[in-house]
Design brief:
The chain has about 300 residues and is mainly alpha-helical. It is about 50% helix and about 5% strand. It has a three-stranded antiparallel sheet with strand order 1-3-2.
Length: about 300
């Protein structure tokens, strides 16, 4: 555990007062100014300690305190400016030391060393330095390149097809034959009859009560979930044919006859080219039980299947 400039341990988190932080920054500034005048081997290490202490003070000071105590900010910025000048002085000193290299003096010392190894009576044997010099160089293994040794591959010629017209790309749509050509129309007639009666029920209710009919009050059955699903499907046929329409009113889903629709045969309406959107609502058993309890349905409105 080391001591910093302020006398506190660097490993402990102690919140200092504004006066203590200001005194710490002043001491750091003084040391930085001294380093600017005297540059030696330990200058960079001392400067690093001073900057670290200034960083600790900066972390302890909040933005609001920096606004109120501007003197700390001024001292910190002045210390950073002085530190940059110290680093510049160290750089100049290092550059001067590098320039003091004398290659003639180095060659003479190398020659004297070689004479001591070879002996005075023998000529200079430069191979004696091989073992010592080769240790200073990184060995690079021999390698060969394959550039130019392989024959180039033949370039493939790509034959582009002519773009076909859009009309030729369109395939003829074939309508499949009926799977059951002799289908029984009795079920279709019964569905048609039930749909007509539901349409009439909706029209009578809206005319007598002068308001739309609640959708779930119409389709819910208190005991049979399957009938609820079929009732929803029957109403969707009427919506698709444009006979009735669904809408939201007072956060409830209601159904009412469409205006301007004349009374007529249902098959004539379906044979018309007018298209509509068939609205089929998703409903599971859990939702059906919740709706049944909420509406308190005791008797269903749609009882045509029992007839």
């Amino acid at each position: 555990m080391t001591e910093n400039l302020s006398g506190h341990s660097s490993d402990s988190l102690i919140t200092r007062s504004s006066r203590e932080r200001r005194n710490c920054l002043k001491r750091a500034l003084q040391q930085t100014q001294v380093l600017q005048e005297v540059v030696n081997d330990s200058t960079v290490n001392i400067l690093d300690q001073v900057i670290n202490e200034a960083d600790h003070v900066a972390h302890e000071t909040s933005i609001q305190e920096k606004i109120l105590n501007r003197e700390e900010v001024v001292i910190d910025s002045e210390m950073m400016w002085t530190s940059s000048k110290v680093l510049k002085t160290c750089t100049i000193s290092l550059t001067k030391r590098m320039h003091n290299y004398d290659y003639i003096d180095f060659a003479q010392k190398l020659k004297n060393c070689l004479e001591d190894l070879s002996g005075d009576s023998q000529p200079l044997n430069w191979s004696l330095l091989e073992e010592q010099v080769t240790k200073l160089f990184r060995r690079i293994p021999d390698y060969n390149t394959l550039l130019g040794t392989l024959q180039p591959l033949e370039k493939k010629i790509v034959v582009r097809k002519k773009p076909e017209s859009r009309l030729s790309q369109q395939t003829e749509i074939k309508v499949p034959n009926k799977v059951v050509p002799n289908s029984n129309t009795k079920d279709e007639d019964s569905v048609e009859r039930i749909v007509r009666k539901i349409r009439k029920l909706i029209a009578i209710y809206c005319k007598e009560n002068h308001k739309p009919l609640d959708f779930f009050q119409l389709v819910l059955h208190p005991h049979d979930f399957g009938r609820v699903v079929r009732n929803i499907l029957y109403v969707s046929f009427l919506v698709k044919d444009g006979v009735v329409k669904l809408k939201k009113e007072n956060n409830n889903l209601v159904v009412q006859p469409c205006r301007g629709m004349k009374e007529g045969n249902m098959q004539e309406r379906r044979s018309n080219k007018r298209t509509g959107i068939q609205s089929v609502i998703s409903l599971n058993i859990k939702q059906w039980m919740i709706l049944k309890d909420a509406y308190k349905i005791e008797e269903p409105m749609i009882t045509f299947e029992d007839e």
